Amino acid sequence: MGLIARALETEGIRTTLTSWNAGIIRGVKPPRGTITALQRGMTLGHPHDEAQQKRVLIETLKLLEQNAPLELVRLDEK
Amino acid sequence: MSKQSTDNLDRWTEHFQKGWLKNFVDTKSIDWKLYKYVKNEHAVFGAGLDLSQAKLLLVSSSGAYLPSKDKPFNAANLLGDYTIRTFPLSTPFSEIEYSHDHYDQTAVRTDTQVLLPLNHLRDLVDSKIIGSLSETVVSFMGYQPWVGRVMKKTLPPIRKIIKQEAIDAVLLVPS
Fold first, then answer.
1. Beta-carbon separation of A58 and B104 below 8 A
2. Per-residue pLDDT at B2 exceeds 60
3. Are B97 and B13 members of one domain?
4. Number of domains in chain B
5. Average pLDDT, stretch A7-27?
6. In which domain, by residue range, is B98 found?
7. Is the per-residue pLDDT at A59 higher than 80?
8. Fewer CB within 10 Å, N- or C-terminus of chain A?
9. Pair (B30, B106) in one structural domain
10. What torsion do the CA atoms of B8, B9, B11, B14 make, to the nearest 10 degrees?
């Protein structure tokens, strides 16, 4: 996902992502993104925890308003 | 494909072909110790935008697809599946299926929005945080070890949708 984000960003499309896999995504250096301590298969939050899912979503989307590159933003979500 | 998107892609490909891929061809098995994840030294640049005026596309690597119109991804292919599927944003969750067995699907089968936040995104449009949404959702299967194929096969159809639908911004949600 990070590589696709980088490719699109260089073509003028703004991108953001969120990932639970900080190690790999840091190496890829996407233009914008958040990282969490959530688990694979529940990237935005726990099932039926709509508040958590929306927090992750909004924090990730808000990054689109900032110029890239940004340091990945760690969210306190697990 | 942008040359800037991946540092040293040629060198990565040579390492992949001589190591991970050669082992797979020779033994028909996967040895992740031979796999090198991409590490980019260079950042990419882009100006921010006004999200409240932007049209957003959701791209998911959940392996989601609609059995009513599409074939599943080839999850059994250890070389990966680099195709995409699309479905309407308005698709009822009950019509979505997943063909990606490289992650535990328990959570997404319990609550679709842990990976596909279709209702949440519509709520954010209603509350004027996001300008508008693409009527198309893009999905692929996130098991894609061959980076060059991601760039040559997965990216172009996404780029085409972005152009056709005049998308300003993309939210990528890995599985």
1. no
2. no
3. no
4. 2
5. 96
6. 51-173
7. yes
8. C
9. no
10. 180
Answer whether residue B161 is part of any domain.
yes
The 3-class SS string of B67-127 reads: CCCCCCCCCCCCCCCCCEEEEECCCCHHHCEECCCCCCCHHHHHCHHHCCCHHHHHHHHHC
User: Does position B1 have pLDDT exceeding 50, yes or no?
Assistant: no
B1 with B62, same domain: the answer is no
Task: Indicate the pLDDT class of residue A20, thresholds 50, 70 and 90.
Answer: very high
B29 pLDDT more than 50: yes
Q: B102: pLDDT confidence band, cut at 50, 70 and 90? A: confident
Pair B36, B68 in one domain = no
| Chain A residues within an 8 Å CB radius of B32 | none
> Which of A47, A54, A64 shows the shortest C-beta gap to B48?
A64
Report the alpha-carbon distance of residue B8 to residue B79 in Å, rounded: 21
In chain B, which residues have their Cβ closer than 8 Å to the Cβ of A5?
Answer: 170, 172
- B85 and B145: one domain? yes
Q: Is residue B46 part of a domain?
A: no
Q: How far is CA B142 from the centre of its chain?
A: 6
By the 8 A CB rule, do A33 and A73 touch? yes
In a domain, B26, yes or no: yes
